[in-house]
Amino acid sequence: MLIGSVALTASSYALCGLAPHVAVAALGFLLVGAGVAAWNVVVVTLRQELVPGRLLGRCTAPGARSAGV
Fold it and tell me: What is the pLDDT of residues 51-62, one digit of tens each?
């Protein structure tokens, strides 16, 4: 699922760049959003499964990504 969402996002960005018409580019941006949403659901679920419960709040706290955690 992770690889599929990355592939969908990448191919959708390519579609946006190569689109001959605005409607096709809009469809590409819609698909980009779907790919990013799928990525977020899978990654957050995976994080919640792998991180021990006592540390989960520290992993999902605001600013944790900017701190490199």
Answer: 888 887 777 666
What SS3 state is found at 15? helix
**Are 12 and 36 in contact, with CB atoms under 8 Å apart?**
no
Query: What DSSP string describes 26-62?
Result: HHHHHHHHHHHHHHHHHHHHHHHHHS-GGGHHHHSST
Residue with tokens 């709040």: 57
Q: How confident is the model at residue 23 (pLDDT cuts 50, 70, 90)?
A: very high
pLDDT, residue 69, reads: 46
Considering the entire predicted model, what is its pTM? 0.72
Q: 3-state class of 3 per DSSP?
A: helix
The C-alpha atoms of residue 26 and residue 35 are separated, in whole angstroms, by 14
Q: Which tokens sit at 50?
A: 């792998």
